[in-house]
Design goal:
six-stranded parallel β-sheet; 25% strand; nine-stranded mixed β-sheet; 32% helix; alpha/beta
Length: 347
């Protein structure tokens, strides 16, 4: 006999690819969850998604959806420049909130969102995590470190390789500071994972460049990008670890991976393959480290969001506190690159 759960009615703001192809199908599979409303950039596009997923109400704007008595929780799938207003308004109208990453435009907005969420302790406020290690993989990495597999932690080297230059490789809003804020390529993603694994950053020194400012679209039109397409960051963590972070849309940096160096060995996590490797200093080659249960678990953020609302689990991926930290990191990168000096954290 299937357990009866309290009904949770979910409204959708923004119906981009990740919402339509990932979050909505998963929400429809969760027992006693109903999709009750949707608002998108145009009524026509909202109606198309509503018909596909049998969502009964199409709202002409997102504020009407947030005010609706037929909505208990809101999933926000819009661009970063909208997140602050949508999140704060939703919380102030008594709605649980799951917002797409990145959290906001800058650290000031992120702090405002965190403050409002703390004023509503009975509501869940969560950010969609990035493709950094999932819970089982993070636990495996921390367990190996705690057991002394690599000795004392010394240095982290994180690479997010976005490939050689391809002007169509990411949507234009990611290249426009007015839409994405201080978020630069994958740096926020990398920082989010490192913060979860190793704690907050204490300082940032960064160099960024914009090598391809002109983005030409398939119809021949073009726009100017204002977000860097190459970044190198040297950081210190509160724990004393040094970290080197690299992200590029223009250079083939090699595999997207995290290398964790210690006095007695090294661990390597492949971001794309979701595989963990390691070796100790008396061993010649890296070898695969199996993670029990990894192949059986799929990280589903909307499932965890609903579980958190129902009180079955705490928010782990990603909290607003973690969001504030990676937003401060990305802003520190911008400040350091602009003025050519080290920036201490928190801001």
């Amino acid at each position: 006999m299937q357990k009866k759960f309290k009904l949770i009615r979910v409204g959708i703001i923004g119906a981009g690819d990740s919402i339509v192809e990932t979050h909505l199908p998963r929400l429809t599979r969760i027992p006693n969850v109903e999709l009750t409303g949707i608002s998108n950039r145009t009524a026509k596009s909202a109606e198309k998604v509503a018909n596909r997923f049998k969502i009964p109400a199409v709202f002409s704007n997102w504020i009407e959806l947030v005010k609706s008595d037929e909505v208990d929780a809101v999933v926000i799938g819009t661009w970063p420049y909208t997140h602050k207003d949508m999140v704060i308004t939703s919380l102030n109208h008594g709605k649980h909130v799951l917002t797409q990453a990145r959290m906001a435009m800058d650290s000031k907005q992120a702090h405002e969102m965190l403050k409002v969420s703390m004023n509503h302790p009975g509501l869940i406020a969560q950010i969609v995590p990035t493709h950094t290690p999932t819970i089982l993989e993070e636990k495996a990495i921390i367990n190996l470190i705690n057991k002394g597999f690599i000795g004392k932690l010394v240095y982290l080297d994180a690479v997010q390789n976005n490939g050689f230059y391809n002007q169509y490789s990411s949507p234009f809003w990611r290249k426009n500071i007015e839409l994405s804020g201080y978020n630069v390529m994958s740096l926020g993603q990398i920082a989010e994972g490192l913060i979860r694994l190793f704690g907050p950053f204490s300082s940032v020194s960064a160099v960024t460049r914009l090598y391809n400012p002109k983005v030409v679209f398939t119809d021949g039109s073009s726009k100017l990008a204002t977000v860097p397409d190459h970044a190198e960051v040297i950081s210190q963590l509160d724990s004393g670890i040094t970290a080197h972070l690299r992200s590029s849309d223009v250079a083939g940096l090699g595999p997207s991976q995290l290398l964790i160096f210690g006095t007695e060995g090294v661990l390597k996590f492949d971001y794309n393959l979701k595989k963990l490797f390691g070796r100790q200093k008396n061993e010649k080659d890296l070898y695969r480290i199996e993670i029990p249960g990894q192949d059986d678990e799929e990280f589903d953020v909307v499932d965890r969001f609903i579980d958190a609302i129902r009180g079955f689990t705490d928010v782990s991926h990603t909290t607003f506190e973690e969001g504030v930290r990676y937003m401060e990191f990305t802003e520190a990168v911008a400040i350091s690159s602009k003025y050519g000096e080290r920036v201490d954290l928190p801001l």
